[in-house]
TrEMBL record, chain A:
CDD domains (alphabetical): PBP2_TbpA
Keyword list, A-Z: Periplasm, Signal, Transport
Entry's Gene Ontology BP terms: thiamine transport
Residues making up the signal peptide according to the UniProt record: 1-18
MF (Gene Ontology): thiamine binding; thiamine pyrophosphate binding
Organism of derivation: Rhodalgimonas zhirmunskyi
Compartments where found: Periplasm
Name of the protein in question: Thiamine-binding periplasmic protein
Chief localization: periplasm
Record-linked PANTHER family: THIAMINE-BINDING PERIPLASMIC PROTEIN (PTHR30006:SF3), THIAMINE-BINDING PERIPLASMIC PROTEIN-RELATED (PTHR30006)
Any GO CC annotation of this UniProt entry: outer membrane-bounded periplasmic space
Organism superkingdom: Bacteria
InterPro entries from the UniProt entry: SBP (IPR006059), ThiB (IPR005967), ThiB-like (IPR005948)
Transmembrane domains' residue ranges: none
From TrEMBL, chain B:
Gene3D superfamilies: MetI-like
Keywords: Cell membrane, Membrane, Transmembrane, Transmembrane helix, Transport
Coiled-coil ranges from the UniProt annotation: none
Name of the protein this chain belongs to: Thiamine/thiamine pyrophosphate ABC transporter permease ThiP
UniProt KW Membrane keyword: yes
Keyword Transmembrane: yes
GO BP term, pick one: transmembrane transport
Domain ABC transmembrane type-1, residue spans: 48-252, 320-499
Localization (cell): Cell membrane
Superkingdom of this protein's organism: Bacteria
Length: 333, 509
């Protein structure tokens, strides 16, 4: 009898489980780790949604898009979170995303938007940051303030490969946006500063922490991580006089989702305080909507918008191809 | 006997078909989906030249350096020898980034070597460039080559050395008569496996190569899949890689000559000709140099990891369980396939090494996706891919011994009518204990450290240890990641050690 009750219990539990709607969100790997914002956000959303939120980690932003293209219309994803503006044109082209139909007010200082506005019909921003060369203040007393100063100095840097990493691609676009036809020449003068080029951010940052380079391509928010999480104030990010390249991370709803309402609710939740307040100290980026308590102390204020360099998403694909071949030529010499 | 040699057994046929299908069908699926193969650009030619060049250098150096080390290990007995041989397996199974950080702690800009040079007022050396790529590949593969060649030495029956001694042969004559034929039989295969392994290197080549000069074909494949989503280009590069690996296999087959020492009675190997002072000093130096080169970076990895152990999140322990289970399942499958293919199917067994795991993974993804969510099959697919990827090493280790076994004991078996299970149980499992356990240990450790396919099929419910380690790194948790890396190293070594216990080569068997 007891066995029967047990079996019935399992059966009923299974039933209950089957009735809870599941929302699958594809994102990048670091988002879902225990140290990332994934677990906290999952808990907070599940408290209000009466659903099962599942994060699926799929490499980095670019790998995320590749995975989506592979799966095509049959994808299980309801929402994709973690593309950035250098990928959104390609993502839109797949036709897999549905318009979000929202007109949010955001605190993202996008250079090509009016203050507070966001006009992309498919993707909504959830955080942003700026690429910057990060260094150790105790080892490098005077950091370069322009690419020219960097190239003229004997400061050693480690960067990421634009063919396999999103910050690497960001740096490529940064140099191209700033130097145009002279970008290849700029890479030529930078080549003796580059210790090496790594496949991804993790390898580069690891190399920098091991003392292999004076500076590493990372984000202006990286020093805040060391300051807040490790009580270490020795790291700083070089703010360049002509601006730093901006990275805006976005999320979008899949057109083929079987949970359209839940996906909409998630996107609303994403811009609410419960989600946004988890961003600074877990994803180490600036929240797209400043939480009511403001930024944590130890976080530098974001750069002002005329200090941000960013190429409009639609122009990225063509520019990327040209910039990539210039980069390859200049650094292969 | 003739019958036995030429009839293809069902197990052999099924295994060969499974492996070939598992590797070639996904490639075909990628080509089919792409509709066309991409063209070959000037940058691709540069990548091809670099890929082949570094692989040639890395494989040749690994094998050349492994010969004196294996020779020394084969004829010397000393305290800690068993442990040294087990530890020598470690670099091979380390996750790439962990090993690279270990190497940099020694040879990097602020590594031990440059710190010492700086203290002496000497100019610093740079590891970044072709030299760094080759150095890292030798670090990974010297131990593998050493183990394979050591096995060859141990397969020479002790009676032959006794006979050589009673004929009054000098060391050089022993080398010519006994050791040279063994090397002719073993070295080409070892060289080929390492060459093919280095062909598909990408993270090591890029990180230590110092920039886009060090672009390999595998990076091209990665880029084509992940950034350009140009399946045709990825397939074309994969076909080129397959061709290169096939070419290397043909060269190895052509150079290699079976040694044919015949059966022995497994007596103690006493190396009479090696009892000179000069030989002793030489062997000591070879072992010492190899140990220093391999164990110092490893020691630094361990030191760095110990500090991280206490800050590892619980996810890491769950991931350890997943990885252990995965490694055991993959090993079981590898061993079944390897036993079936070892006699005559070695060439099929190598296929798993010749095709980029990115291509296999993506192809499988394309095949599975129309039917069922790939995430649901993540575990079995990861097991199967790991099994097929470890197969080349297993058949390489088991193959030559299996054929020698057939040659030495096949006639006796035929006369006594020992076949099928009885042959497997009473002859193969007993006689090949050493190579079987080495192959199993290698497969388990390889599956433990693999990151390739699982990332593509990643499921929300579980992650492997290497994947978890990379996720930690991506979230600034370098210290915890170092801890996870150490855990991975220890558990891989443990698996390797457990399997390999029966097979660790001893002078006195």
């Amino acid at each position: 009898m007891r066995h029967l009750a047990f079996a019935a219990g399992i059966f009923l539990a299974g039933q209950a489980l089957a009735e809870t709607p599941v929302l699958k969100v594809y994102t990048y790997d670091s988002f879902v780790s225990d140290w990332g914002p994934g677990p906290v956000i999952e808990k907070r959303f599940e408290e209000v949604c009466d659903c099962d939120l599942q994060f699926v980690g799929a490499g980095d932003g670019a790998a995320l898009l590749a995975r989506l293209k592979l799966e095509g219309k049959r994808t299980d994803a309801d929402v994709v979170l973690g593309l950035d503006t250098s990928l959104t044109a390609q993502a839109a082209e797949t036709g897999l995303f549905a318009p979000h139909g929202k007109t949010p007010k955001v605190d993202v200082p996008t250079p090509y938007e009016e203050a507070g506005a966001w006009s992309d019909p498919l993707f909504l921003p959830y955080d942003y940051g700026y690429l910057a060369f990060v260094y150790d203040k105790t080892k490098l007393s005077e950091a370069p303030k322009t690419f020219e100063e960097l190239a003229a100095s004997d400061v050693k840097i480690v960067i990421q490969d634009p063919r396999s990493s999103t910050p690497g691609l960001g740096l490529l676009l940064w140099v191209k946006a700033q130097y145009g036809d002279q970008a290849e020449a700029m890479w030529g003068t930078l080549s003796d500063n580059i210790v090496t080029v790594t496949p991804g951010w993790s390898e580069a940052y690891g190399l920098f922490l091991e003392g292999e380079a004076d500076m590493v391509l990372s984000y202006t928010t990286s020093p805040a991580y060391h300051r807040i999480a490790e009580k270490d104030d020795s790291k700083a990010a070089a703010v360049f006089e002509q601006g730093n390249y901006m990275q805006i991370e976005v999320a979008g709803k899949l057109a083929g989702t079987d949970q359209p309402e839940l996906a909409d609710r998630f996107l609303d939740f994403m811009l609410s305080d419960a989600f946004q307040s988890a961003i600074p100290e877990l994803n180490w980026m600036y929240p797209a909507v400043t939480p009511k308590d403001g930024l944590p102390s130890g976080f530098d204020a974001p750069l002002i918008s005329d200090h941000a360099v960013l190429i409009e998403p639609a122009k990225v694909p063509a520019m990327r191809a040209e910039a990539l071949s210039e980069w390859q030529t200049a650094l292969s010499r | 006997m003739a019958n036995r040699a030429f009839k293809i057994k069902p197990a052999e046929g099924i295994s060969a078909a499974f492996v070939a299908a598992f590797v070639l069908v996904p490639l075909a699926a990628v080509i089919w989906r792409a509709g066309t193969l991409g063209g070959f650009s000037a940058a691709d030619w540069a990548a091809l030249r670099f890929t082949v060049g570094q692989a040639l250098l890395s494989a040749s150096l690994s094998v050349i350096l492994a010969v004196p080390v294996a020779k020394a290990l084969a004829r010397r007995n000393f305290r800690g020898r068993r442990m040294l041989i087990t530890l020598l397996g470690a670099p091979f199974i380390l996750p790439v980034i962990v090993a690279v950080l270990g190497i940099l702690a020694v040879f990097g800009r602020s590594g031990l070597v440059n710190t010492a040079l700086d203290a002496l007022g000497l100019p610093e050396i740079s590891i970044y460039g072709l030299q760094g790529v080759v150095l890292a590949h030798v670090f990974f593969n010297l131990p593998l080559a050493t183990r394979m060649i050591l096995q060859g030495w141990q397969a020479i029956p002790g009676e032959r050395f006794r006979l050589a001694a009673s004929l009054g042969m000098r060391p050089r004559q022993v080398s010519r008569v006994l050791e040279w034929p063994m090397l002719r039989a073993v070295v080409p295969g070892a060289w080929m496996v390492i060459f093919v392994l280095c062909l598909s290197s990408f993270a090591v080549a890029l990180t230590l190569g110092g920039g886009p000069r060090a672009t390999t074909l595998e990076l091209g494949i990665y880029q084509a899949f992940r950034y350009d989503f140009d399946l045709g280009r990825a397939a074309m590069l994969a076909v080129v890689q397959l061709g290169l690996a096939g070419g290397a296999a043909l060269v190895a087959l052509w150079v290699s000559v079976p040694s044919g020492f015949g059966a022995g009675l497994d007596r103690v190997v006493r190396r009479y000709e090696a009892e000179t002072v000069l030989a002793r000093v030489g062997d000591g130096l070879a072992i010492f140099a190899a140990a220093v080169f391999l164990l110092i970076p490893l020691g630094l990895v361990i030191l760095n990891g110990i500090r991280g152990l206490s800050v590892m999140p619980s996810q890491v322990w769950e991931a350890l369980g997943v990885s252990l289970l995965l490694a055991l399942c993959a090993t079981a499958l590898t061993m079944v396939l390897a036993l079936a293919l070892a006699r005559r199917g070695e060439a099929v067994g190598y296929l798993g090494l010749a095709i980029s795991p990115m291509v296999i993974g993506t192809g499988l993804f394309l095949l599975v996706n129309p039917v069922i969510s790939p995430m649901a099959l993540a575990f079995p697919v990861t097991v199967a891919v790991n099994a097929v990827m470890a197969l080349p090493f297993a058949v390489r280790v088991i193959g030559p011994e299996m054929r020698a076994l057939e040659a030495d004991w096949g006639r006796l078996g035929a006369v006594l009518n020992i076949r099928g299970w009885a042959w497997l149980r009473w002859v193969v499992l007993l006689r090949l204990r050493k190579s079987l356990s080495f192959a199993a240990g290698l497969s388990a450790a390889l599956a433990m450290g693999d990151l390739g396919v699982v990332a593509l099929f990643a499921s929300p419910d579980w992650a492997t240890l290497p994947l978890q380690m990379y996720r930690l790194m991506g979230a600034y948790q370098m210290q915890a990641a170092a801890g996870a890396g150490l855990l991975l190293l220890m558990s891989s070594l443990f698996l390797f050690w457990i399997f390999d216990r029966g097979g660790r080569g001893d002078v006195d068997v």
